[in-house]
Recover the amino acids of this structure.
């Protein structure tokens, strides 16, 4: 089974080159899982381009690295995901909750606050 994980970010007008790449490189993925970084706007590679790279995959996990539920999380990602499911029904797309909903993120924030 061919599987990918897409770390989805907003994009920046003035990105710090290599910053997210270093973080993603330190993530331990299951053997054989490809990792990709994609942006919704302002930066490349764009989400649509990365999805094209995954068209031969059996399963694609999308991890939106957004802290808050803004328009992208509420509207854009669900719309794009629905289109994906229609355009590539052979691929199992799994869209995970945005990072602000993860209990681990909340725990980390609480731990940091206690260290102040």
């Amino acid at each position: 089974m061919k599987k990918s994980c897409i770390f989805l970010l907003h994009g920046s007008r003035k990105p710090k080159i290599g910053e997210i790449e270093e973080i993603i490189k330190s993530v331990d993925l299951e053997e054989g899982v490809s990792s990709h970084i994609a942006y919704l706007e302002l930066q490349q590679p764009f989400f649509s381009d990365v999805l094209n790279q995954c068209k031969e995959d059996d399963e694609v996990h999308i991890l939106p690295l957004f802290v808050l539920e803004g328009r992208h999380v509420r509207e854009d990602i669900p719309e794009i995901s629905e289109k994906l499911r229609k355009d590539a029904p052979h691929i199992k797309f799994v869209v995970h909750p945005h990072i602000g909903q993860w209990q681990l993120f909340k725990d980390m924030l609480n731990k940091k606050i206690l260290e102040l």
